[in-house]
Structures are given as C-alpha cells and as structure tokens.
From TrEMBL:
Protein name: MULE transposase domain-containing protein
Domain of life: Eukaryota
InterPro entries on file: MULE_transposase_dom
Ranges of residues in domain MULE transposase: 4-81
Family matches, as Pfam families: MULE
Protein source organism: Acer saccharum
Length: 82
C-alpha cells in the first residue's frame, strides 16, 4: 500500500553544491501529481528560459514539462539512463 510520494526539485549552485529548492507531497507519482508540482514550481522561478531540468525520465515529468516548462531544457540523468 502506497502512503504517498515526495516530489522534489533541487538546484546546483556556482560552487557545485546541491540544495533543495522545492518539495511537495502527492498520492502517487503520476502525470497529475507532477503537473501540479511543476505548476507550483513555475510560480516561483523568475526566468524559466534559463532553467534546465534533469530527471529520471518518468512520464509524469515529461508531460508536466511539456505543459508547464515547454521553454526550458530537459535532460536525462546519466545514472537512470544506464
């Protein structure tokens, strides 16, 4: 039984340090949840055209990216690619 999932966005600063930017709780990792999360994230990012996303290729992330961050670059995590 799934009790929910944690959706997380992290950033890398100029010193190559990773820090949390945003997180949200959802019932499951699905298109609806990722679209909601990315919509909230879009509200706080000032320059989305200068943002790049790296993900694990989940279909919900890709669908949310097309709907919410269609102008941002999107790459695939090398770890998840292998």
């Amino acid at each position: 039984m799934t009790r929910g999932v944690l959706l997380v966005a992290v950033c890398k600063d100029g010193n190559e340090m990773i820090y949390p930017l945003a997180f949200g709780f959802a019932h499951s990792e699905c298109i609806k949840s990722w679209t909601w999360f990315l919509k909230q994230l879009r509200n706080v990012i000032q320059y989305p055209e200068r943002v790049m996303f790296v993900s694990d290729r989940h279909e919900g992330i890709f669908a949310g990216m097309e709907a919410i961050f269609h102008d941002a670059a999107h790459g695939v995590c090398a770890y998840h690619l292998s």
